[in-house]
Write a structure and sequence with these properties.
By secondary structure, the protein is α+β, with helices and mostly antiparallel strands. The protein is built from eight helices and nine strands.
Protein backbone atom coordinates (compact mmCIF):
# COMPACT_ATOMS: atom_id res chain seq x y z
CA UNK A 1 0.00 0.00 0.00
CA UNK A 2 1.79 3.11 -1.22
CA UNK A 3 0.77 6.55 -0.01
CA UNK A 4 -0.43 7.53 -3.47
CA UNK A 5 -2.55 4.39 -3.69
CA UNK A 6 -4.01 5.03 -0.22
CA UNK A 7 -4.94 8.59 -1.21
CA UNK A 8 -6.50 7.32 -4.44
CA UNK A 9 -8.64 4.79 -2.54
CA UNK A 10 -9.49 6.61 0.71
CA UNK A 11 -9.64 10.23 -0.48
CA UNK A 12 -10.80 9.94 -4.09
CA UNK A 13 -12.17 6.43 -4.45
CA UNK A 14 -14.36 3.79 -2.83
CA UNK A 15 -13.00 4.46 0.66
CA UNK A 16 -14.79 7.83 0.79
CA UNK A 17 -18.02 5.91 1.39
CA UNK A 18 -16.69 4.67 4.76
CA UNK A 19 -16.22 7.36 7.41
CA UNK A 20 -15.69 4.52 9.90
CA UNK A 21 -14.14 1.26 8.75
CA UNK A 22 -12.67 -1.80 10.39
CA UNK A 23 -9.50 -3.68 9.56
CA UNK A 24 -11.43 -6.24 7.50
CA UNK A 25 -12.99 -3.49 5.40
CA UNK A 26 -9.61 -1.88 4.81
CA UNK A 27 -8.19 -5.26 3.84
CA UNK A 28 -10.92 -5.55 1.19
CA UNK A 29 -10.06 -2.09 -0.19
CA UNK A 30 -6.38 -3.03 -0.46
CA UNK A 31 -6.84 -6.68 -1.37
CA UNK A 32 -3.75 -6.80 -3.60
CA UNK A 33 -1.39 -6.06 -0.68
CA UNK A 34 0.44 -8.79 1.15
CA UNK A 35 0.22 -8.83 4.95
CA UNK A 36 3.51 -7.00 5.45
CA UNK A 37 2.68 -4.23 2.97
CA UNK A 38 -0.82 -3.84 4.36
CA UNK A 39 0.32 -3.63 8.00
CA UNK A 40 3.09 -1.17 7.16
CA UNK A 41 0.67 0.96 5.16
CA UNK A 42 -1.88 0.94 7.95
CA UNK A 43 0.74 2.16 10.43
CA UNK A 44 1.86 4.87 8.00
CA UNK A 45 -1.68 6.13 7.37
CA UNK A 46 -2.38 6.25 11.11
CA UNK A 47 0.84 8.17 11.77
CA UNK A 48 -0.02 10.64 8.99
CA UNK A 49 -3.52 11.15 10.41
CA UNK A 50 -5.44 9.99 7.34
CA UNK A 51 -6.80 7.17 9.51
CA UNK A 52 -7.58 7.67 13.19
CA UNK A 53 -7.75 4.61 15.44
CA UNK A 54 -11.06 4.62 17.33
CA UNK A 55 -10.70 1.20 18.93
CA UNK A 56 -8.81 -2.00 18.27
CA UNK A 57 -9.24 -2.71 14.58
CA UNK A 58 -11.67 0.22 14.03
CA UNK A 59 -10.64 3.44 12.26
CA UNK A 60 -12.07 6.77 11.17
CA UNK A 61 -11.30 7.69 7.57
CA UNK A 62 -10.67 11.38 8.06
CA UNK A 63 -10.86 12.02 4.32
CA UNK A 64 -14.47 10.81 4.11
CA UNK A 65 -17.36 13.27 4.43
CA UNK A 66 -18.38 13.75 8.07
CA UNK A 67 -21.45 11.57 8.74
CA UNK A 68 -22.84 13.79 11.52
CA UNK A 69 -24.77 12.02 14.27
CA UNK A 70 -25.01 8.90 12.14
CA UNK A 71 -21.31 8.32 12.75
CA UNK A 72 -22.10 7.51 16.37
CA UNK A 73 -24.37 4.64 15.34
CA UNK A 74 -21.74 3.30 12.95
CA UNK A 75 -19.11 3.35 15.71
CA UNK A 76 -21.48 1.60 18.12
CA UNK A 77 -22.15 -1.19 15.61
CA UNK A 78 -18.45 -1.66 14.91
CA UNK A 79 -17.62 -1.76 18.62
CA UNK A 80 -20.23 -4.45 19.35
CA UNK A 81 -20.21 -6.63 16.21
CA UNK A 82 -22.64 -9.51 16.33
CA UNK A 83 -24.67 -7.90 19.12
CA UNK A 84 -27.84 -5.83 19.15
CA UNK A 85 -27.48 -2.24 20.34
CA UNK A 86 -30.16 0.37 20.94
CA UNK A 87 -30.32 3.84 22.48
CA UNK A 88 -32.13 3.68 25.82
CA UNK A 89 -32.07 4.94 29.44
CA UNK A 90 -31.82 8.71 29.92
CA UNK A 91 -30.74 9.27 26.30
CA UNK A 92 -33.95 7.86 24.84
CA UNK A 93 -36.15 9.42 27.52
CA UNK A 94 -34.58 12.84 26.85
CA UNK A 95 -35.41 12.47 23.13
CA UNK A 96 -39.03 11.77 24.01
CA UNK A 97 -39.16 14.72 26.41
CA UNK A 98 -39.67 12.62 29.57
CA UNK A 99 -36.38 13.98 30.91
CA UNK A 100 -35.43 17.62 30.47
CA UNK A 101 -31.66 17.19 30.81
CA UNK A 102 -29.82 15.75 27.81
CA UNK A 103 -27.02 13.34 28.88
CA UNK A 104 -23.49 14.27 27.84
CA UNK A 105 -22.96 10.73 26.51
CA UNK A 106 -25.24 8.53 24.42
CA UNK A 107 -26.43 5.63 26.58
CA UNK A 108 -26.74 2.39 24.65
CA UNK A 109 -28.14 -0.94 25.78
CA UNK A 110 -26.34 -3.88 24.18
CA UNK A 111 -26.44 -7.65 24.26
CA UNK A 112 -22.63 -7.39 24.31
CA UNK A 113 -20.31 -6.12 27.02
CA UNK A 114 -20.70 -2.81 28.83
CA UNK A 115 -18.06 -0.09 28.63
CA UNK A 116 -17.34 3.47 27.61
CA UNK A 117 -15.81 4.82 24.42
CA UNK A 118 -14.99 8.29 23.14
CA UNK A 119 -15.33 8.97 19.43
CA UNK A 120 -15.08 12.00 17.11
CA UNK A 121 -18.87 11.77 16.70
CA UNK A 122 -19.74 11.75 20.41
CA UNK A 123 -19.18 9.60 23.48
CA UNK A 124 -20.86 6.26 24.08
CA UNK A 125 -21.66 4.35 27.24
CA UNK A 126 -22.68 0.73 26.70
CA UNK A 127 -24.77 -1.08 29.33
CA UNK A 128 -25.30 -4.83 29.01
CA UNK A 129 -28.92 -5.96 28.70
CA UNK A 130 -30.23 -9.47 29.23
CA UNK A 131 -33.24 -8.78 26.98
CA UNK A 132 -33.67 -11.36 24.23
CA UNK A 133 -33.20 -10.38 20.59
CA UNK A 134 -36.91 -10.90 19.74
CA UNK A 135 -37.90 -8.66 22.68
CA UNK A 136 -35.46 -5.97 21.58
CA UNK A 137 -36.58 -6.06 17.95
CA UNK A 138 -40.25 -5.90 18.98
CA UNK A 139 -39.72 -2.85 21.22
CA UNK A 140 -37.25 -0.73 19.27
CA UNK A 141 -37.26 1.18 15.99
CA UNK A 142 -34.35 1.97 13.68
CA UNK A 143 -33.54 5.67 13.82
CA UNK A 144 -32.03 6.60 10.46
CA UNK A 145 -30.65 9.90 11.78
CA UNK A 146 -28.45 8.04 14.25
CA UNK A 147 -27.99 4.80 12.37
CA UNK A 148 -28.97 2.83 15.47
CA UNK A 149 -32.06 1.24 16.99
CA UNK A 150 -34.02 3.31 19.52
CA UNK A 151 -36.03 2.06 22.51
CA UNK A 152 -39.73 2.72 22.84
CA UNK A 153 -40.48 5.07 25.78
CA UNK A 154 -41.80 2.17 27.87
CA UNK A 155 -38.72 0.00 27.36
CA UNK A 156 -36.39 2.98 27.94
CA UNK A 157 -38.08 3.60 31.30
CA UNK A 158 -37.91 -0.09 32.24
CA UNK A 159 -34.22 -0.19 31.32
CA UNK A 160 -33.54 2.86 33.47
CA UNK A 161 -35.41 1.32 36.41
CA UNK A 162 -33.43 -1.92 36.08
CA UNK A 163 -29.94 -0.53 35.56
CA UNK A 164 -29.89 3.08 36.79
CA UNK A 165 -32.75 3.36 39.32
CA UNK A 166 -31.01 6.19 41.15
CA UNK A 167 -31.81 8.41 38.13
CA UNK A 168 -35.55 7.74 38.00
CA UNK A 169 -36.10 11.07 39.78
CA UNK A 170 -35.04 12.78 36.54
CA UNK A 171 -38.19 11.55 34.79
CA UNK A 172 -41.16 13.92 34.74
CA UNK A 173 -43.84 11.31 35.39
CA UNK A 174 -46.70 13.46 34.06
CA UNK A 175 -44.90 14.14 30.77
CA UNK A 176 -43.83 10.50 30.53
CA UNK A 177 -47.45 9.36 30.95
CA UNK A 178 -48.40 11.60 28.01
CA UNK A 179 -45.51 10.22 25.94
CA UNK A 180 -46.61 6.65 26.65
CA UNK A 181 -50.23 7.45 25.81
CA UNK A 182 -49.24 9.10 22.53
CA UNK A 183 -47.02 6.15 21.65
CA UNK A 184 -49.79 3.65 22.37
CA UNK A 185 -52.33 5.69 20.36
CA UNK A 186 -50.03 5.52 17.35
CA UNK A 187 -50.04 1.68 17.51
CA UNK A 188 -48.98 -0.08 14.30
CA UNK A 189 -45.41 0.54 13.14
CA UNK A 190 -43.19 2.23 15.70
CA UNK A 191 -42.21 5.77 14.87
CA UNK A 192 -38.93 7.64 15.02
CA UNK A 193 -38.25 9.20 18.44
CA UNK A 194 -38.46 12.76 17.12
CA UNK A 195 -42.02 12.09 16.01
CA UNK A 196 -42.94 10.86 19.48
CA UNK A 197 -41.96 13.87 21.55
CA UNK A 198 -44.49 15.93 23.38
CA UNK A 199 -44.42 19.68 22.89
Amino acid sequence: MTLSEAVRVLVLGAGRAFPVIDRQGLRALFAADGDHAFNAGLRRLTELGLLERLARGVYQNRAAPHPGRRGLGVVARYLRPGHLCYVSYESALAEFGSISQVPMVTLVATTGNGGERRSPFGDLEFCHTSRSEPEILANTVFDDRLGLRFASPGIAYEDLARVRPENLHLVDQDVHAEVLAEWERAAGPMREPSQSRTA
